[in-house]
Amino acid sequence: MALRHVDAVVIGSGAGGGIVAKELATAGMTVVLLERGRWISPYECAKDDLRNQRTSVLGASFGPEDEGNPRVKVNRDGSEEIVYPSRGAYHNNAMCVGGGTASYGAMAWRFMAQDFRMRSIYGAVEGSTLEDWPISYDDLEPYYEKAEYELGVSGDVEPDPFKAPRRKPLPMPPLAPNLEYRILKPAALRLGLHPFDIPMLRNSVPYDGRGACMRCRWCVGFACEVNAKNGTQNTVIPKALATGRCKLRTRAVAKEILLTAQGKARGVAYIDQNDRLQEQTADLVVVSCGAIESARLLLNSRSRLFPNGIGNNHDWVGRNLQGHTYTGANGLLPFDCYDDLGPGAGIAICDYNHGNPGLVGGGMLCNEFIRLPYQYLGRMPPWVPAWGKEHKDFVRKWYRRTINVQGPVQEMPVFESRVQVDPKVKDRWGIPAARLSGYKHPHTLEIADFLSRRAEEWVKEAGAIRTWRRVPNDDLSAGQHQAGTCRMGNDPKTSVVDRYCRVHDVENLYVVDASVHVTNGGFNPVLTIMAIAYWASAHLVRSRS
Questions:
Q1: Which residue from 51, 318, 379, 422 could staple onto 435, CB 3.0 to 4.6 Å apart?
Q2: Mean pLDDT, rounded, for 139-162
């Protein structure tokens, strides 16, 4: 039996798709929201260090849930390997209702005004596709505000002199400072820096029917059992479903976007939870699968009009894959800095996002989320053995006395860092797998080196008696902050979607997630994804009225 035709089908229920589904449904449209994963309960996520984050030695807690979803990694020497969700090289960003917002650390940053004008401010960067966005911070400002208030953001950014203009303060106050915060803040002030409370999609007080954060250590990488961490799964998606006009279908794996002979999108073919091929037709198709999977879906949707994939007649789909290169410094203190008060991260500076001599952009720096014991092993100093008595003695002595400051570099986009579909490797449904290749731009590593030295200065001023820096390599960057593969722009020859996220060559097909980011800022990108989702949704509603 054919499925009922709807006004819109949205593929992916994360930061972008969840908001689009809610906005369209509350505007009176009938919507089907497809999610390849399932709705994960916090009570399924045991407080187990080994299952922390989205991939671990025990698999991907937030999906995909089996090894039938391979990807291909192309190394710098041209060799290839198949990688699965339990490997970091998979670059997973969670596949479940809510996407990465079900498990993220929930930092809720607005990009700076300069972040939308990188080419105009800094000029061309050799070997990079650095470019301006076709929209400005001012275009998004009302939608940043809407995301902050509808989903709920706590914090206090007023002491940050570098922030872009805003009309309203954050809707909730910050969480009370933990011990690391109280150590780092006076140190930053002594250095002439401008510390402030990190904005977070986390309730510091009861908000919109959900309780306040209970300050547990199991936060980033885990679902919140008291519903105080705000993602699409516990905010906008329930509102969309409550309209009666939105239907959520889980374990629905999109295979390809369907087109009419005239080149309009007519729906999506997907594999349902019983492994049956279904067709959901719709007047409007919105792709919100994340930068890797959105590009993969477009590339797998081939036809006479688009022999290389939808929107890819100029070879830009899948290009410019970027994430965030994290850099920073660790320090050993002669006193305790760990008080077991979650989420851990709380204080940040934006002094080094822009205006660094000889550098194109920069990034924010902040203290890190609580270091669970398993994570701590990956942050050991280089002079400590990886096992044995000396290793154990170090952990016992320094676990509570190690402080960390780090941040995401605003990367230089690279045309050759990309997503393709593999000609041989397929997933368990026979759909060609994503093929990942590329590298970081050399200037990204220069910025990382600069920021790690500034982080080291901060931890030294905080009292560290010995320090070591986190220096990244030049491997491909993507992960949970993946972006850029369906770039937004005015010129169809050098971008995939227009300023409202519509695929240039298909009038009723949109991509709404971090795929459209021209650059990815020096911040966690989720609030910008949400703001763009509200921005694109407003355009969709206007265009149908």
A1: 422
A2: 98
Per residue in 62-81, pLDDT (tens digit) is: 888 777 899 999 998 999 99
The amino acid present at 235, given as its one-letter code, is T
Cis peptide before 64 (omega within 30 of 0): yes
**Structural contact between residues 106 and 501, judged by C-beta atoms closer than 8 angstroms:** no
Identify the three-state secondary structure at position 312.
coil
Calpha distance 508→99 (Å, rounded) = 24
pLDDT for the residue numbered 54: 52
Give 439's strand partners.
475
- Domains defined along the chain, listed by start: 160-221+325-410+440-475 (3.30.410)
**pLDDT for 16-64, tens place per residue?**
999 999 999 999 999 999 999 999 887 777 677 776 555 566 667 888 8
Asked whether 318 and 509 are in contact (CB, 8 A), the reply is no
CB burial of 361-385 (b: ≥16 within 10 Å; e: otherwise) equals bbbbbbbbbbbbeebbeeebeeeee
| 307's tokens | 């022999």
DSSP 483: B
Question: What is the value of pTM for the model shown?
Answer: 0.97
> How many Cβ atoms from other residues are within 10 Å of residue 192's Cβ?
7
